[in-house]
Amino acid sequence: MARYLGPVCRLCRREGEKLFLKGQRCFTPKCAFERRAFAPGQHGKTGGSHGQQRESDYGRQLRAKQKARRVYGVLERQFRRYFGVALGRRGLTGLNLLQTMELRLDNVVYRAGLADNRTGARQMVTHGHFLVNGIRTDVPSMLLKPGDQVTVREGSKSTTLFRELRDYSEKRNCALWLDRDLTSLSLRVSRLPERAEIDGNLNEQLIVEYYSR
């Protein structure tokens, strides 16, 4: 299962903004973006970083696509496949793409407040802690749909991680398109997310333009 294994703070610096890939650490002075708010590489400080040079249309489209990929933690081949899924559905392709990304199992666990970031959510899923509609799964990229039920496996509830999870998750917001029950450590996808409920810094129109070249 392919995934990015490099330093994630470098990705934020490349995009010129915080992508909040490390959860709560991104809100502290320890955040690398706070200490080095310039693009990575030997020309980061002097090479027209973060939009000081005029970007071409292609450059803006590429950056929009790369940002979305990095936010959701997927590689190019997988992201292109998601675009194909969105293209085949009725409605706006850009919104379809973002909704598809939001319905990944690891993202749903993160949006429900059960993990500090998507990387942590992905790890929890790959360790087999969750059941989807009563069936154990360890596939973070599994796409859910409205009505699907996600529960913590009974054998996992006794672990330290999930014993402390209820108190931790109470302090975190749950996406409005999810129904969360911290007593039973379960959640349900009640509907598709609306555009206003998805990261506003993502520009889906530029992504569509990139893949439509």
Mind sketching the topology for me?
Elements: H1 8-15, H2 32-35, H3 57-72, H4 76-87, H5 93-102, H6 105-111, H7 118-126, E1 130-132, E2 135-137, E3 149-152, H8 154-157, H9 160-163, H10 165-170, E4 178-181, E5 186-189, H11 204-211
Antiparallel strand pairs: 1-2, 1-3, 3-5, 4-5
Helix pairs in contact: 3-11, 4-5, 5-11, 6-7
Whole-number tally of structural domains: 2
What global shape is seen?
globular
Question: Which fold does the CATH topology of the largest domain refer to?
Answer: Ribosomal Protein S4 Delta 41, Chain A, domain 1
Order of SSEs, N→C? HHHHHHHEEEHHHEEH
How many individual β-strands?
5
Largest sheet: 5 strands, antiparallel
Q: Flag low-confidence runs.
A: none
What is the overall number of helices? Answer: 11
